[in-house]
Structure formats: C-alpha cells, structure tokens
Amino acid sequence: MVGMNCPNLVHGVRRARQSKEALEAKRRKEQSKLRDYLALTDDVLTRVRIYSRYNAFDLTRREQKKRNEWSREALNATTQLLQVNPEFYTVWNYRRRILINGVFPESTPEQIKDLLTDDLSLTMEALKIHPKVYWIWTHRGWCLNNVPSRPGISDDGDPRGWEKELWNQELFVVEKLLDADPRNFHAWSYRRLVLESMPVPKLETSELAYTTRKIESNFSNFSAWHQRSKVLSSLWSQGKLDETKSKEEEFDLVHNAMYTDPKDQSVWIYHRWIIGSGDSRDILEREIAIIQSLLEEEPDSKWCMESLVHYKRLLLRNHASSVVTSTLTQDCIQLLDQLREVDPGRRARYYEIGDSGSGLTLTVTLIQHTSYIWFMSYFKRVLSIDNILNDKWRDKHWWAILLTLAIARLAAAAVQTTNAAAATATVGLRDGSLSGL
C-alpha cells in the first residue's frame, strides 16, 4: 500500500519536514495558549469557589456583587473560557447564576432579551464543533425559558410574542442541525423539549410527517424511529388517530425497511414495539410468515432469526391452546442453534434464552455463586489451618466447624437438586413439552 512503512508519507501524501526552529516556535505557541487557558480557568474557578463558599451563609446580594462574583467582568470571563472549552459544565452553571443574580436585576426586558440572544449565538458556535455536549444544549434551553414576556414584532398584542418568535426560530434551528446530523440523539431530545415548550403547540400529525421524511431518507435513523413511537403513542392515547389502522400503516413502512436493509437493528426494534406483547395471534402469525420469507432470501440474517424466536415465544406464551406447541418449540431450538453459529459472540445469551423456559438457570447460578462466596470467605476468615491446628481454639469453636460443614453440605445438595431439575426442564423443552419458552 502507498505510504506503508514510510514515516514521511501520510495517506499517500509526502509530509513536509519541519525545521527545528519551526517546531520550537510551534511548541512555544502551544505553551503560551496553555498558560493563557490555565490562567483564565484559575480566575473563573476562584470566583466560583468564593461564590460557593459564601452563598450559603449571610452575604447579601450587594456584598456578593462587591466581590465581583456576579459582575459583568465575571460574565465576560466565563464567555472567554467557554469559547475555548464549552464542555466545562461548572462554568455554564456559574454563568447562569451571574445572569440571574447580577445582570438581569439591573437590566430592562429588552436588554435581557439581547443578553439571552447573545448566549444563543454563543451556544450555536459551540454546537458547530461540539454537537453532542449535554451542557451546551441545556444552556440553550435555559435561555429560551428565561425570555421576558413582551408582545414582539406582531400586531396581535400577545404578551408572549418574544417567546413565540424565539421558540419558532429554535425549531427551525434544530431542523437544520438534524439535516447536518440526522442521528444526533441530543438534537432529537432537544427537539422534543422545543415542541413541548412552544407557546403555540405544533400539530403532532406534522411531527409524524417529519419523522416519516427522516426515516425514508435513512432507515437506520434510530432516533427518528424513537421519536415516531412517542408521537404515535401520544396520538393514540388522545384518540386523535385510529390505533388499529395506523399500526397497519406502520407495518407497511417497517416491511419496506426490513427488505431494504435486514441488518439494521433500528427497524427490528421498532417492529417489536408495534407488536408489543403479542395479544393478536393473527398479527403474530402474519409477521412470522413475512420474516420467514425474508430469512429464505437472507439465510444468515441474525435479526430475522432473533425476531422469529421472539415472536414464536410470544405465540407459545399467549396462544398455547391454539397453536402446535411442539413445532414452535422445536423451531425456536433450531433457530437458537443457528444463532449460536452466525453470532458466536452472543452464544451464551442464546443458550440462556433456550433455557429460560424453566426459569431455573438463574437460580442455579445464584445458589452456586452465593454458596461458594459465603463458604470460602468464612473458611478463610475463621476456619484457617492455624485455627484448626490450635487445640484451644478447636475446643472452643467446635460448633463453628460442624455448622460450616453442615451448611456446605446443604448448599451442595441444593445445587445438585436444582441442576437436576434444570436438566429435566431442558429435556422437556427439547421434547416440545414446555410451552413457556
């Protein structure tokens, strides 16, 4: 390959050699920037420590302001520091305290709005480089929640005019950010906050249409599927959408996604959400048939196999009286065997699923683990060789020896009995006699 074993080539492009003088100048520049950052950090954190130390005691707001903890100077210092390091959540918290206690009380509503608008600009610049930092999104939401009530530019006289303007603008901003990164779950979570906070709520049907566009452009957008599930749940609970009819439409959308990319996890998780607890036998059998057909085209599809096991177990659990349990159980066993081959990294998980019908595997593990840990810790602490060989200790604590041996024997018997029961249950599972796979 081009550039292999050649230190002067980077991605096939020859790297220019830098002189010692250039490297030294670069090092000095970096050290200067680091010193400036550390000095700025020390200044801001010193103010934070003073604020934290005295705020809980008897300093009045005026006295605190005299200490420059809530001054414009302190605000400017946090601005400089956050422009360099927007992940410094302590400084974001301190900045909000400065605004609330020091700056806002002396500002007009227009000035407060301007300050908050400046902070929205500050966070936007930070999001361009750090789109997945919680603290930036949190501060942005705080700014919008603290906009003063004023009519705004419209002529309707609505006292929440400013809020309407900024929240509507914010929804547009979030959509642009999601266009840049459609799967940014921070942006999706923030979008839900914006929708919940808008003075004039947006129609949920329009949000449903928005998720449709995002999903159709990229079926692997898990955040869009998740948002869609929340919107649909809300519409169904309010009776604004026929649940049965809309679920059928969702199945059509999911089937299209399944056949487009059967390896995509997002689609299969959403499919399970639509089916839910599997109360409808007809839907389960129909979906099993569709997935079975897809598996014939994609014989190594892990998600097809996992879903078939899941839905056939739902049939066994909820509709055992009206299905052939032996056939379904055998199908599940065969599918789990195949899954152990195509997905060896989760082999133990598939063994556990196969044994979960008895509910005894976990019991065996817990008894073995607990008994072993307790016995060994007690043995090391009390029944040490030195103690046992000590005649005086042995004569005084003979009961401890007998009690420990008796408990160990009972624990071993319990493990043996439970293992036998688990083995019997597994045999029953493979014979098709257990319907609660």
Automatic annotation (TrEMBL):
Lineage: superkingdom: Eukaryota
GO cellular component: Rab-protein geranylgeranyltransferase complex
Catalytic activity: geranylgeranyl diphosphate + L-cysteinyl-[protein] = S-geranylgeranyl-L-cysteinyl-[protein] + diphosphate
The EC number(s) this enzyme carries: 2.5.1.60
Coiled coil: 13-40
Keyword Repeat: yes
GO molecular function annotations of the record: Rab geranylgeranyltransferase activity
Enzyme category, top tier: transferase
Keyword terms: Coiled coil, Prenyltransferase, Repeat, Transferase
Signal peptide: none
Single GO BP term: prenylation
Any one Pfam family match given in the protein's UniProt record, by short name: PPTA
Function field: Catalyzes the transfer of a geranyl-geranyl moiety from geranyl-geranyl pyrophosphate to cysteines occuring in specific C-terminal amino acid sequences.
Family the entry assigns: Belongs to the protein prenyltransferase subunit alpha family.
Protein name in the entry: Geranylgeranyl transferase type-2 subunit alpha
Organismal lineage: Eukaryota, Fungi, Dikarya, Basidiomycota, Agaricomycotina
